[in-house]
Amino acid sequence: MAQEIHGTVAEGFEAVREEFASVVAAERPDYAGQLSAYVRGRRVVDLWTGADTDGDTLFGVFSSSKGAAHLVVALLVQDGTLELDREVAYYWPEFAAEGKAAVTLRELLAHRAGVVGADAGFTLDELADDRVIAERLAGQRPFWRPGTAFGYHALVIGALTGEVVRRVTGRTLQEVYEERVRAPYGLGFHLGLPESEEHRYLPVQPMAPTPPEQALLDATPRGPHTLASIAFNEHVPGAVPLVDFPNSRAVRALGQASAGGVASARGLAGMYAAATGEVNGRAALLKPDTVAEVGQIHSVGYDLVARAHKSYGLGFQATADMWHPFLGAGAFGHSGAGGSQGFADPRSGLAYGYTRRRIAFPGGAAPENQRLVLAVHSAAGRWGPS
């Protein structure tokens, strides 16, 4: 029996509902997920399905959290509070240790600093706390000469940039995000989930690969001391599996800025809509010059951690090059290990958000995003508000 699709689409976006239904029909019977999109500040897609799921349900979105974290940094750069070409150590002197004195904020945001993890790794409680991560990594020797290459700072980039925010503002990145972004727009995208909102959270479910998919995973194991293992804290004996990270109340409560956020698809899409355009009478959070700066590609090519082609702007993924080549130049956003994805395409006025409960194979943005984004983008190109 097919799962019922709930929610609404604007006139002209009926094909998006059909594509979402097709995606759901191909999933396991226990699939739960959400899809949302805005065009020029108007929500045009708002769909969901699954047991215990509605449009306000919150899922662990892993690295999609980085989009919220680095929207804060973009705002502070726009304000003149932070300067992209200042050395990180100018704001945070301890970071200069072990050859990192010349690393600029721009290089850090572009995953070029080489501080992807700690030699000794972290416990779950340590990894939940950005302040602890930052303190440990200030004295860490980089894993490559900063600026010469790039690699995904998967679980630590938000702590590193967040410490810069704290040093210059006296407030945590999470506090600035709550005050300037989440609360004013009522977004269902939290970096720090209050106890009172815990009832909205559905725990992440582990990946359930088919036998052929499992064979692929088994054929490409990570060595225990590779850059990837260090970046994902897998080199620690007894390390907690990634699936359990957002399922930790400590992680959700502290809102670990690299991977500890929780969101609905409405929250993801709404944040990117607010970042780049007017929403409900409020002016865009980012000015056009700032939008162009954060979306400009700063690192492209071979990622030393992912061992694959990747593209990054300033704290964001370069969405068109990395995921969806039909999007406009300068599209920016972030995906998460569970399958979530959110982005803004400023040239078309499109903002997109997708969440799912069960981790998708093979990790990162779930494959169905390709179909869903194309459907939304195609409808948006033909659409004009009545």
Automatic annotation (TrEMBL):
SUPFAM superfamilies: beta-lactamase/transpeptidase-like. Residues 35-354 form the Beta-lactamase-related domain. It comes from the Bacteria. It comes from Streptomyces tauricus. This is Beta-lactamase family protein.
